[in-house]
């Protein structure tokens, strides 16, 4: 039944093959809005829509076919895609631009996409069609194997590659005595070398499988009724078996393309260009059926996905290309880690192998290095932990010897994987595309910024840059102080110093005494003074020390306006308060956004608007959220026991209590926390400086977590704590951190530096005997807390600074302007590119 | 006594009482032609004025930076991306090719 397209101008896209890559292609079309503009028809040979072939074998460990499905529920209906399951395409007429399906239906197309995948290669041996011979590619194959295995005792897999071993594992799981027959002299010949194969062999034999390498299958022997009874091998031996699975590689399914005259490769595969177009520009081919622009047929899913995106982009007329992919592989099969990358087989001339092999544990690691030490590739069997680090090092001379790299953890010196380990051409600053090599030509941060621009964009790379630079001579805080933050903290505390000038003139470097200090030590000392004196942070001399954010109690934005983040403890907020936020934002024309930390940010206030806005917020019961300070930010919470069916404690209450206890605490860097009501961890507590997870018996306390550029999972400090025990440990933990961390050192790097065990001993066991002193400091903080914004509003003297111009206090800054975007507003940056407001 | 600033052409513009400037911090002043100046007072009471526009971002914010001393020169660090500007010459200490205007100041 031929179809006539409804509207003449609606193009039709026909997809043949609904496998993994086909489905990714459909999603890409939907993401690009194309499904709304085109009629999309899918011809699917299998009886079910696309499923996760990569995890096919998990069917045998209980995953149902439905669970393997890759099509989100309602996807086809939502995007108006016509899916015809069990109806493969049988012919393409490129002249008429139609596809004919087995059912007889004819579909006209404007664009045709072939995603027909591969078929398993079955060697042409006699008896290959006997009852009891199978391949291993589809859910239907597995169902048939499962059924047949019920009446079988022995199984044999032809092919000891990746899939063969997977199939062998499955047969074993079905209770069969299992043999693997591999023609090559070792298992997984494509991925691993001889040594790796030997390690694999030991492991696999250790699992009770019989492996026959270096022999081919000559014939499948069948009984009179046509059922398999055994195999004849090339060494003349016979192997009795009831069932045979062929897993001897795959071949691209390019028949449809061949039949309609598309160009195909000599060894198969529909030829495509870098945009996945075939020799007919109206026809695309993607996934395993395509011969990519680099002359390869990829048998992995990731390159297929990239091809799907390239084709979709081209169809919606975006620049796109697929020129080749990395075929490094890391697999987990039969519980064995296997990885190979780069020149795994050492084919480069003059290269050397460095091998570590432990036959007891089945670990084999080989690195291939050039004569000059350049890492060329490698094979890891049994322990592929280092794959992630080794692959990017390929092509470089690693900072430590190859021997050290292959030694297992615990043997010899640990291998440092910090930025030192990165190759010279690793891009450190992605804003300005500056490599490690370019940075290392300089010795100080200002010099790096000046000469390479690295670190002058988003600034997120500065910490890594600092690590790459030679340590400044004496480890001092800055050009003004030769001491560390911790030393300054001790000095301020013991000598009861209350002024920055005094500290600089007495304890600064000789040449800095009597000077102005600098932008590094001023806020640092201000924070120490604030941590120890708990006073209002903007009084007297302290006013001159704070960064602009602390100075105006708000966060500066790129056009010089400020954002406002009121505290919303635990993320809990009443409708009334929400309404106030909405009204305030509306009245002052502010842009609103929910932040990544469960609160609400309002952007675009000019300096002189801040007090008026805050007056209304304070009136409604809000207080400063310290988004501008090196201080406690938020204590995120999950909804917890009160509502959630899994919750075992009241996580919201605990989060609010903690947020109110530690609000305003000045620290070397910002502090974040989270409280989850159960192990499901919806509040992400383990990524926080201190995080709490409820247990049936109380609370578990985790410390030293971090998101950001260098994420770190928190360490468990103590378990099953009562409320009081929990608070006490946090008090001590925080105060010890405030006292001993360096400037801008979050708890995560601080713990890494001084050691988690040490922190635990001090905080939990009070090994330094300073526990009570820390308790006292925190008690003082809690008792003295006052809201900075309320205090500011009550004091005309303090309010004086909130003007744009000292000589025109009523005039707003004319360069802070906004333009509309998505029903709100955003900074007008064009005005900032003018050299001044009026012409000069 | 007033802090006066010369926007050019030999004129002097009275701006504010120098005492309103917190030592170590700045404030912005609006000039008659729409330009903005950043005024500073250091610990010793010395006054400075440079253009308020941060040439790296275009925002009028230099008055809100922190001042400091480096190799004997007094500077302000932009509050946005922290580049430092010499308060006497206007030169950027972190990029030779960038400078801001300097305005003469006096008290009268
Ligand atoms: C507003 C917000 C983004 C948003 O729209 O959601 C934000 C905005 C900024 N973040 Fe953030 N961060 C925000 C949540 C986060 C989160 C998520 C969270 O807190 O759950 C993270 C990762 C978690 C973490 O910190 O471990 C985060 C990691 C960072 C980092 C990296 C910190 C690190 O340790 O690596 C920086 C840079 C820094 O602090 O040195 C940063 C810095 C900044 C600054 C202060 C950059 C700056 O100096 O201008 C941004 C200014 C805030 C402003 O103007 O209001 N922001 N930032 C979020 C405010 C949350 C809040 O309510 O207070
Ligand atoms: C057991 C197993 C384990 C694997 N493990 C991994 C792994 O760990 N990592 C990895 O990257 N890859 C793995 N792969 C490979 C991966 O599954 C493929 O790379 C991927 O499925 C290719 O996607 P595709 O869409 O090109 O082909 P397929 O997923 O094979 O889809 C092609 C579809 O087209 C259909 N079709 C063919 N001809 C027609 C026609 N004329 N009309 C209509 N429909 C047609 C087929 O029936 C099939 O459903 C594994 C494969 C198997 C079998
Ligand atoms: S962490 Fe547990 S209690 Fe909290 S919302 Fe998630 S599942 Fe519920
Ligand atoms: S990554 Fe270097 S400044 Fe953004």
Supply database-style keywords.
heterodimer; A: 840 residues; alpha/beta; 5-stranded parallel sheet; 27 helices; 29% helix; disordered N terminus; disordered C terminus; B: 108 residues; mainly beta; 3-stranded antiparallel sheet; 9 strands; 41% strand; globular; binds siroheme; binds flavin-adenine dinucleotide; binds iron/sulfur cluster; binds FE2/S2 (inorganic) cluster
Short description:
Chain A is α/β, with parallel strands linked by helices and about 850 residues long.
Structure description:
The complex is a heterodimer of chains A (840) and B (108). With 840 residues, chain A is of the alpha/beta class. Helices cover 29% and strands 21% of the residues of chain A. In chain A, strand 37 and strand 38 form a beta hairpin. Chain A is globular. The termini of chain A are far apart. Chain A contains 27 helices and 38 strands. The N terminus and C terminus of chain A are likely disordered. By secondary structure, chain B is mostly beta strands. Chain B is 0% helix and 41% strand. Chain B has a three-stranded antiparallel beta sheet, with no helix packed on it. Chain B has a three-stranded antiparallel beta sheet with strand order 3-4-5, with no helix packed on it. The mean pLDDT of chain B is 92. Chains A and B meet through helix 13 and helix 18 of A and strand 3 and strand 6 of B. The site of iron/sulfur cluster has 13 residues of chain A, from loops.
């Amino acid at each position: 039944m031929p179809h006539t397209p409804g509207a003449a101008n609606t193009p039709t896209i026909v997809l043949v093959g609904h496998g993994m890559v086909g489905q990714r292609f459909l999603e890409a079309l939907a993401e690009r809005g194309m499904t709304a503009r085109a009629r999309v028809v899918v011809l699917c040979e299998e009886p079910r829509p696309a499923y996760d072939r990569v995890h096919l074998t998990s069917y045998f460990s209980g995953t149902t076919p439905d669970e393997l499905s890759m099509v989100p529920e309602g996807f086809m209906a939502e995007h108006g895609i016509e899916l015809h399951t069990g109806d493969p395409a049988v012919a393409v007429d490129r002249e008429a631009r139609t596809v004919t399906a087995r059912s007889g239906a004819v579909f006209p197309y404007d664009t045709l996409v072939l995603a027909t995948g591969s078929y398993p290669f079955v060697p042409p041996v006699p008896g290959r069609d006997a009852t009891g011979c199978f391949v291993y590619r589809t859910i239907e194959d597995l169902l048939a194997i499962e059924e047949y295995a019920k009446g079988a005792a022995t199984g044999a897999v032809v092919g000891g590659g990746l899939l063969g071993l997977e199939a062998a594992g499955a047969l074993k799981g079905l209770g069969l005595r299992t043999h693997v027959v591999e023609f090559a002299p070792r298992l997984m010949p494509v991925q691993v070398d001889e040594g790796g194969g030997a390690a694999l062999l030991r492991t696999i034999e250790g699992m009770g499988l019989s492996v026959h390498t270096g022999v081919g299958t000559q014939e499948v022997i069948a009984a009179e009724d046509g059922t398999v009874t055994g195999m004849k091998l090339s060494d003349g031996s016979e192997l009795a078996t009831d069932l045979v699975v062929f897993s001897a590689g795959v071949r691209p399914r390019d028949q449809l393309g061949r039949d309609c005259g598309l160009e195909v490769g000599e060894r198969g595969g529909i030829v495509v260009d870098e945009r996945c177009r075939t020799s007919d520009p109206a026809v695309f081919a993607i996934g395993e059926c395509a011969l990519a622009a680099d002359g390869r047929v990829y048998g992995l899913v990731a390159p297929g996905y990239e091809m799907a995106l390239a084709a979709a982009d081209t169809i919606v007329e975006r620049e796109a290309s697929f020129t080749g992919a990395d075929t490094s592989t890391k697999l987990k099969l039969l519980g064995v880690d296997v990885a190979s990358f780069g020149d795994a087989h050492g084919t480069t001339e003059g290269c050397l192998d460095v091998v570590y092999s432990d036959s007891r544990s089945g670990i084999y690691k080989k690195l291939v290095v050039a004569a000059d030490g350049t890492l060329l590739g490698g094979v890891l069997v049994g322990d592929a932990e280092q794959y992630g680090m080794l692959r990017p090092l390929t092509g470089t001379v690693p900072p430590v010897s190859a021997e050290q790299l292959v030694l297992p953890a615990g043997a010899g010196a640990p291998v440092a994987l910090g930025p030192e380990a990165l190759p010279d051409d690793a891009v450190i600053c992605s804003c300005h595309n500056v490599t490690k090599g370019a940075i290392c030509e300089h010795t100080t941060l200002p010099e790096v910024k000046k000469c390479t621009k690295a670190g002058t964009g988003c600034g997120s790379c500065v910490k890594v840059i600092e690590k790459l630079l030679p340590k400044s001579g004496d480890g001092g805080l800055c050009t003004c102080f030769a001491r560390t933050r911790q030393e300054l903290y001790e000095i301020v505390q013991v000598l009861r110093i209350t002024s920055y000038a005094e500290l600089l003139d007495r304890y600064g470097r000789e040449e800095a005494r009597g000077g102005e200090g600098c932008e590094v030590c001023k806020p640092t000392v201000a924070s120490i003074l604030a941590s120890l004196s708990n006073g209002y942070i903007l009084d007297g001399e302290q006013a001159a020390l704070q960064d602009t954010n602390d100075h105006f109690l708000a966060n500066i934005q790129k056009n010089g306006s400020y954002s406002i983040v009121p505290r919303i403890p635990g993320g809990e907020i009443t409708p009334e308060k929400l309404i106030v936020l909405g009204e305030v934002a509306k009245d002052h024309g502010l842009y609103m956004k929910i932040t990544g930390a469960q609160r609400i940010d309002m952007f675009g206030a000019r300096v002189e608007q801040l007090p008026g806005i805050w007056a209304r917020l304070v009136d409604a019961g809000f207080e400063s959220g310290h988004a501008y300070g090196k201080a406690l930010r938020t204590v995120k919470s999950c909804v917890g026991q009160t509502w959630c069916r899994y919750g075992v404690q009241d996580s919201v209450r605990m989060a609010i209590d903690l947020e109110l206890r530690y609000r305003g605490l000045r620290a070397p860097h910002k502090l974040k926390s989270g409280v989850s009501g159960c192990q499901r961890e919806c509040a992400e507590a383990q990524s926080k400086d201190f995080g709490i997870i409820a247990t049936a018996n109380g609370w578990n306390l985790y410390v030293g977590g971090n998101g950001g550029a260098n994420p770190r999972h928190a360490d468990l400090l103590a378990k099953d704590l009562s409320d009081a025990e929990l608070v006490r440990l946090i008090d001590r933990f925080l105060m010890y951190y405030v006292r001993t961390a360096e400037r801008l050192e979050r708890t995560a790097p601080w713990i890494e530096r001084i050691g988690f065990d040490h922190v635990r001993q001090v905080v939990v066991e009070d090994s330094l005997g300073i526990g009570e002193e820390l308790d006292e400091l925190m008690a003082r903080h809690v008792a003295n807390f006052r809201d900075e914004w309320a205090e500011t509003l009550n004091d005309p003297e303090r309010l004086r600074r909130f003007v744009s111009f000292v000589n025109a206090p009523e005039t707003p800054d004319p360069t802070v302007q906004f333009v509309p975007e998505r029903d709100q507003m955003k900074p007008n940056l064009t005005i900032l590119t003018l050299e001044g407001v009026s012409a000069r | 006594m007033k802090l006066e600033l010369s926007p050019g052409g030999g004129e002097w513009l009275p701006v504010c009482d120098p005492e309103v400037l917190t030592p170590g911090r700045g404030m912005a002043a609006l000039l008659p032609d729409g330009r903005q100046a950043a005024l500073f007072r250091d610990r010793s009471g010395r006054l400075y004025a440079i253009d308020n526009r941060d040439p790296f971002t275009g925002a009028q914010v230099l008055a809100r930076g922190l001042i400091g001393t480096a190799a004997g020169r007094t500077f302000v660090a932009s509050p946005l991306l922290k580049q430092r500007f010499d308060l006497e010459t206007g030169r950027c200490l972190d990029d030779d090719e960038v400078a801001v205007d300097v305005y003469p100041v006096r008290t009268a």
